Amino acid sequence: MAAGESFETIQKSYFKVFLALLVLTALTVAVTTIHFGDVMNIVVGVLIAIAKAGLVIWVFMHLKFDNSRLRFFVYVPAFFFLTFVLALTILGL
Hints:
Helices cover about 75% and strands about 0% of the residues. By secondary structure, it is mainly alpha-helical. α1 packs antiparallel against α2 and α2 runs antiparallel to α3. The longest helix has 25 residues.
């Protein structure tokens, strides 16, 4: 945890992420009732899931509080992984 972060600040960020996860979950349920097309429904669902995973990684797994070098070693593989997943999703494999 980063020095200088007060418990109240961390607690507020946890609560904000919790609310964001609730909203994204409601959005996921709402999107299932809308037909965007076969591929686009999957892409929208994957994008919402990526946003939720990003929030969890950023705050609950304390990436927000780590130094920037460590974040670099997380961002680069995550970028390639997400690109790979989206490409496979769009190609339907």
